[in-house]
């Protein structure tokens, strides 16, 4: 059985949990508290020297880190990762966008507000994240205006990657009311029969 080490309130961990539910993959979830230093223990670092979650441990005992790498591994051979080279490249494009143009702003603003309680010494950083976070949302809004999903006519791991932090962007101070296509897309994903909410 798969083991996943993670924090269900983390978007990067939630995206793994969400895909596994979509795929019906049995797994053991091992809760990790990053604020208590549980990713810095000798036992955890022996599995992931980078000391980050999520971490997937496969039945052979091998471990895989980085959320989008985990999604690609689990989705391989399913409709969530198209076989067509062009569509597959576009899935990767949106996953790279998520990690470089979306997550560093929307997720970090959420972390500062939700996990740290928006301390005064990080308020300037929090406010600076808003500019690029809204830019990422505008890119998504433009793309989704005439599409149901990011890449194909059905859900892929590109959608799961970006849904994770987008649907809770308000927790990082982002107002989605001006992004109707993004809101509709979020609603579409959350209405999927295999959807599970973030804890």
Keywords:
globular, 7 helices, 199 residues, alpha+beta, 4-stranded mixed β-sheet, 8% strand
Q: Which class of secondary structure composition applies to the elements?
A: alpha+beta
Q: Residue ranges: pLDDT <50 for 5 or more in a row?
A: none
Q: Summarize model confidence as the mean pLDDT.
A: 97
Task: Report on the biggest sheet.
Answer: 4 strands, mixed
Record field, number of beta strands: 4
Helical stretch tally: 7
Could you give the order of the helices and strands? EHEHEEHHHHH
Strand content: 5-15%
Strand order of the largest sheet: 2-1-3-4
Q: Indicate the percent of residues in helices.
A: 40-55%
CA radius of gyration: 17 Å
Protein name: Glutathione S-transferase family protein
InterPro entries: Glutathione-S-Trfase_C-like (IPR010987), Glutathione-S-Trfase_C_sf (IPR036282), Glutathione_S-Trfase (IPR040079), Glutathione_S-Trfase_N (IPR004045), GST_C (IPR004046), Thioredoxin-like_sf (IPR036249)
Pfam family, one: GST_C
Organism: Roseofilum casamattae BLCC-M143
